[in-house]
From TrEMBL:
This is Predicted transcriptional regulator. It comes from the Bacteria. InterPro entries: Non-func_TypeII_TA_Antitoxin (IPR052991). It comes from Caenispirillum bisanense.
Length: 79
């Protein structure tokens, strides 16, 4: 089930949305709905990854500085 959501966009974004709607034949509402769904999914995933990273660091689970430096030294030397 879809729930109405209201928002605002600048004129350039609205023009791009109108162009995409005309070009793809998809209603602008569907394009906005898909964009918001993808954004929300990605942001939720990203915040969970950050939360897990902080928990790992707090528990002492991280790569020692020497290993990180060695990795980047090797990467710079070998591309």
């Amino acid at each position: 089930m879809r729930t109405p959501v209201q928002g605002y966009a600048d004129e350039a974004t609205k023009a791009r949305l109108d162009f995409l709607s005309r070009t793809t034949g998809q209603p602008a509402e569907d394009l906005v709905s898909e964009a918001v769904a993808q954004y929300a999914e990605y942001e939720a995933w990203k915040l969970e990854q950050i939360r897990q990273g902080i928990a790992d660091a707090d528990a002492g689970r991280f790569v020692p500085e020497e290993e990180v430096e060695a990795f980047f030294d090797d990467w710079e030397a070998n591309g």
